[in-house]
Amino acid sequence: MTTVQVTRTIDARGMPCPGPLMSLIGAIREGGVDDVLEVLSTDAGSRTDIPAWLLKAGHELVLIAEDDGYTRFVVRKLK
Amino acid sequence: MDETFSLALFSGTDDKLNAAAVLTAGAAAMGRKVNVLLQYWALDAFRADRIHKDHGVAPEAGPEGIELVQRHNGQHWSEIFRQAKEIGEVTIRACSLSMEMFGLSMEDLDPLVDGQEGVAAFFVDVDGPVTFI
Question: What domains are defined for chain B?
Fold first, then answer.
């Protein structure tokens, strides 16, 4: 099994919609190709918005996991 | 090419401006061009010296609604508009009629506002329905 090395973690817990998505978009822009970004979010909208944006923008959703009161998204920048 | 999201903002209360800012950010994130026209009280709320002041909430909120909105500590709507402009193609212009009515010039407005235009110029960039808030 391979483990994914996270390049950068964005702790957006407590931020309301669309804050976590906006933070992710900013980080994707600043990052390089193949960077792996982790977003932590308590905002329910992120669960639909982050996958929708990734599909549109063409980056990879590596993982969505429910943790203790928040959702963890792992994303790979593809271009 | 996706349709432009055209938004005419009339109301100047913080809840409606927040809803408009969130819609703008979502549209910009999904690759839509966003075309915003500020009229009346929405324009007044974008005055540089007033943008961060309390603009109240819509009348339908009622006392409980006011409390709910105030308790929800989100980012200020102006910050959400700023982020939307950073990630996408968002143009915010003041309606020249409202500018004239309020005796405003561009220097009176927050830098989020890109310019002023008449309503016909607004429709140059409209290629679908106009959302009115």
Answer: 5-132 (3.40.1260.10)
